[in-house]
Structures are given as structure tokens and as C-alpha cells.
TrEMBL record:
Transmembrane segments: none annotated. One of its GO terms (cellular component) is cytoplasmic side of plasma membrane. This is Flagellar biosynthesis protein FlhG. GO terms for molecular function: ATP binding; ATP hydrolysis activity. SUPFAM superfamilies: P-loop containing nucleoside triphosphate hydrolases.
Length: 290
């Protein structure tokens, strides 16, 4: 990994020069368990950003069980695997969608980015750098604690942990936060909490307060609450139709919630060390400067 970091610094330099003029906000969306709506929120949040006029790229970062394409009703011919092995360029696998966002399919079955060869490293770095014209890159990570999840989390500008009011989901949300803060103790991870499938604003706040207080008490780490999304039958209906709820019913409660969340995020300044070059340095092993 350290050798890869050196390779990357040689490719991009050490000061993020290529990102000085344009800062791409890179968001990783993760969860402690499957079934909390993480992928659905990733897709619809990407669309909410696009509806604000942003250039958005959605990446399926679940490299074991990639399935974002199912929610978009897309059958991709190529995915990240072809980029990693040099068979395709990023421009050849990135897909336009009817929803105003671009999409990059995950590399199903590819489990160890840490074992990239020099050629694969060069391919990944140079091709990912081509995404720097985007305003927003959203990465839907796999659920749980696979190495690839932690790499995306370590490199992203912001990390959104999705949970629901279910006791097991709350426990798993704390678990993934504990792992992140322990395994990535040398990084300054910008963690935020999003509570999905709530029945009231009060429920969302109560769940978030519970997790944030426990994290603060036992892990001495600050997590920010960015909002909630209502439980609503329109979500399941949209999944069945393979069409995002932001499109199916843009005035539904979940859609309005996401618009509010995205609006709140947009009011926060993009970090000074944000951008694609710095993402790559952190992703492939570079340490954050103290």
C-alpha cells in the first residue's frame, strides 16, 4: 500500500494542484448492515443533486454484490473491472441515465483493491482522475466492514452512515462507526448520520441523539446528524418499478426529505483538501497531513 501511495504521488504530485480550481465533493454512503435502504438513498440523493443543476456521478462501490444498476433499470455492458485491468477507459464505461446523472457500475466479485498491480494502479489513478469535472461523486459502498468499504470511507470527503429505527440497525450503525474510528484512527473522517424509514421527525432525532451520544461517550468521536427520511410506500413501489422515487413521486415525503438534506449539505463549504486527486491519494494509502 505504501508503494502504491508513492506511485500515486508521482502521478499527481503532493499538493492537489489539479483540484485547485474545481473542488469535487466526494460522498461515500455506507451502513453497518444491508437492508436499511443505503443504495436506494444513494441513487435518489444523486438525482436530488442533479435536480439542483449539479454534474453528478454515481459509482457503485459495492465490489462484491453491485446492484445500483438494478434500481436504475440498467444492464451495464462494462464495469470498473475493465478499467482496472486496462481493457477500457473510464469514458467507455461511464453511462448517461435518463435521470440526469452519470453512472459507473461496480466490479462484481473484485474484492482486493489493496492488491492492485502497478499497471492496475496506473490505470485506476489516471482514469479516476478523468472524473474531476464532476461537482458531486456519490459512492454507494458495500454494507459492513469489508476492506473496500473502509478504503472508500477513508478517502471520501464526507461519509454518511445510514441506519433505521430497528434495534439491530442501530447496533450495526454504532458498530460500523466504531470500526471506522478505530481502523482509521489516523484519518480525519467527516462522519454524518442519516436515519431512514422513520415515522416522525421526533423519531429520527431520538434515534440520532442516541447513536451520537453513545459514539461521543464511548468512542470520543463527533458524528453529525444530517437528517431523516420518512417511511413511505412510494419507496417500495419505486423499487419494484426500477425507477427512483425522486422521479416516480417528486413530492412524496421521502423525496422532500432528501431535497432538504441535499440543500443543507450544499450550504456547507467543500473541504480545502477535497477533490479527486486527494481522494486518490487517501484511497490508495496516503496519510492525511497533520
Amino acid at each position: 500500500m505504501e508503494e502504491q501511495a508513492k506511485e500515486l504521488r508521482a502521478l499527481f504530485g503532493t499538493d492537489g494542484e489539479s483540484d485547485k480550481e474545481h473542488k469535487t465533493r466526494i460522498i461515500a454512503i455506507t451502513s453497518g448492515k444491508g437492508g436499511v435502504g443505503k443504495t436506494n438513498l444513494s441513487v435518489n440523493m444523486a438525482i436530488a443533486y442533479a435536480q439542483l443543476g449539479k454534474k453528478v456521478i454515481l459509482i457503485d462501490g459495492d465490489l462484491g454484490m453491485a446492484n445500483v444498476n438494478v434500481l436504475l433499470s440498467i444492464v451495464p455492458q462494462y464495469n470498473l473491472m475493465q478499467v482496472l485491468n486496462g481493457q477500457k477507459k473510464m469514458s467507455e464505461i461511464i453511462l448517461d441515465t435518463e435521470f440526469g446523472i452519470k453512472f459507473i457500475a461496480g466490479a462484481n466479485g473484485f474484492s482486493k483493491i489493496a492488491n492492485l498491480s502497478k499497471d492496475e494502479l496506473d490505470n485506476f489513478a489516471s482514469e479516476f482522475a478523468s472524473l474531476s469535472n464532476a461537482d458531486i461523486i456519490i459512492i454507494d459502498t458495500g454494507a459492513g466492514i469489508a476492506n473496500n468499504v473502509l478504503q472508500f470511507v477513508a478517502a471520501a470527503d464526507e461519509v454518511y452512515v445510514v441506519t433505521t429505527p430497528e434495534p439491530t440497525a442501530i447496533t450495526d450503525a454504532y458498530g460500523i462507526i466504531k470500526i471506522i474510528t478505530t481502523e482509521l484512527a489516523d484519518r480525519d473522517i467527516n462522519l454524518k448520520l442519516l436515519v431512514n424509514r422513520v415515522h416522525s421527525a421526533e423519531e429520527g432525532k431520538r434515534i440520532s441523539d442516541r447513536i451520537i451520544n453513545i459514539v461521543g461517550q464511548f468512542l470520543n468521536y463527533k458524528v453529525e446528524y444530517i437528517g431523516f427520511v420518512y417511511e413511505d410506500s412510494v419507496v417500495q413501489a419505486s423499487v419494484i418499478r426500477q425507477k427512483p422515487f425522486m422521479i416516480v413521486n417528486p413530492t412524496s415525503k421521502p423525496a422532500v426529505c432528501l431535497k432538504h438534506i441535499v440543500g443543507r449539505i450544499e450550504k456547507t463549504e467543500v473541504a480545502s483538501d477535497a477533490g479527486v486527486s486527494n481522494f486518490l491519494k487517501k484511497f490508495l494509502g496516503g496519510k492525511k497531513n497533520k
